[in-house]
Amino acid sequence: MGKKSRVKTQKSGSGASAVVSPKEMMNLISELLQKCSSTAPSAGKEWEEYIQIRGLVEKIRKKQKGLSVVFEGSREDYFSDLMSWAQESGASCDGFTVTDFGTEGYGLRATRDIKAEELFLWIPRKMLMTVESAQNSVLGPLYSQDRILQAMGNVTLALHLLCERADPASSWLPYIRSLPQEYDTPLYYQQDEVQQLLGTQAVQDVLSQYKNTARQYAYFYKLVQTHPAASKLALKDSFTFDDYRWAVSSVMTRQNQIPTEDGSRVTLALIPLWDMCNHTNGLITTGYNLEDDRCECVALQDYKENEQIYIFYGTRSNAEFVIHNGFFFQDNAHDRVKIKLGVSKSERLYAMKAEVLARAGIPASCVFALHCNEPPISAQLLAFLRVFCMTEEELKDYLLGDRAINKIFTLGNSEFPVSWDNEIKLWTFLETRAALLLKTYKTTSEVSRLEPKLCWKLWSEVSDCRSI
């Protein structure tokens, strides 16, 4: 998965263990929980809150130095155990091997020619770490009594991962030892690295991710120390912020949905070996075979022996990849940026515009997306912009008369413009908003690929309208 697989040294796992009283640690944890649970800051104060939360976390990390679990050796040392365990468990292992692909990190390399759509990888359920397996594990008693665990499958998986990592007899150790010791998710960013995101659309999600992770850690630290159902958990003796950050990142970069054993609903799962595949553009080629009770993956394309085997992670933007997966995909066919648009309630024609939009099933204020590929805007955004730029007479045409209902259905169709003046207005307006959006970035490096493509497309649309 691109840079998600890069291995670093876990600083918190070296050096002498810190000496800190349980009371002192609990006081710090309580302070962190209170800070993370307080009312959301007012607009513009999010960075200040982040600094305060991070300060508390760093105090806690300093006192926990040397207490985190770290396996001996490098991640690569355990790949042979992973492959042996997979083969013994009934997974397919004869067409590939784990290889270091440099800047892309570890991935799967074909050891023979593989044809497109060929079933080359399957992983039986018994190898998967799921919310269901967590319920049946040492975590089960706590899960049955805690509503947050029951409501948040990703958090359950993170704690499940930590409990199994602490168990020398865990059947999942070959998998857990093969995971990165650190990640490139924003949870691992230095403060100055996060600061460079200020002004970008990603920063709010990055700050929220850090706050939520800190709150969850504080909550579960107190729960593990005080709840009777947690008395037998190994986490009671050692549960550091770095441990939780690692587990959250492991789940965040790898979790997938699979059917439950009875097939009645979906559950979250970690899928060993399969999650070694890196991302490329394409289609989803992984599914779940309920009859054989296993995860199956067919080849996205033809692969020659020694070529890297890729899968498609889904239609995420690069901002989403950075936040949730820890890497940036240069040729992302689904890259996009968000743009918030709305009709001002103080506008004279607000009621008419809101009514036309409501009939089209579109809110009067909404977050849309500008895409780097064709078409640059969705049918919904096109419909909104057309209504946004309508004159009073044009609005009447879509509100009154026998044909009004039928005309509503054409709002998002590029073949049926409201008028040529309306088309020029909407594309000129969008071009201006896109230019303003670009100015919010301190540098254009993050949007250098999107900027020329998007602006050229918007300008082409404006020019086409003006030439008619």
Automatic annotation (TrEMBL):
What Enzyme Commission number(s) appear in the record?
A: 2.1.1.85
Q: Which segments constitute the SET domain? A: 94-314
Can you tell which superkingdom this protein's organism belongs to?
A: Eukaryota
Q: Which GO terms describe its biological process?
A: methylation
Against SUPFAM superfamilies, the record matches this protein to: RuBisCo LSMT C-terminal, substrate-binding domain, SET domain
Subcellular compartments: Cytoplasm
Query: Transmembrane stretches, by residue range?
Result: none
Q: Which UniProt keywords apply?
A: Actin-binding, Cytoplasm, Methyltransferase, S-adenosyl-L-methionine, Transferase
Q: What is its main location?
A: cytoplasm
Which Pfam family, giving just one, matches this sequence?
A: SET
Name the chemical reaction catalysed here.
Answer: L-histidyl-[protein] + S-adenosyl-L-methionine = N(tele)-methyl-L-histidyl-[protein] + S-adenosyl-L-homocysteine + H(+)
| InterPro entries with a match to the protein in the record | Rubisco_LSMT_subst-bd (IPR015353), Rubisco_LSMT_subst-bd_sf (IPR036464), SET_dom (IPR001214), SET_dom_sf (IPR046341), SETD3 (IPR025785), SETD3_SET (IPR044428), SETD3_SETD6_MTase (IPR050600)
Q: List GO terms (cellular component aspect).
A: cytoplasm
What the record says about family reads: Belongs to the class V-like SAM-binding methyltransferase superfamily. SETD3 actin-histidine methyltransferase family.
Q: What is this protein called?
A: protein-histidine N-methyltransferase
Q: Native species of this protein?
A: Seriola lalandi dorsalis
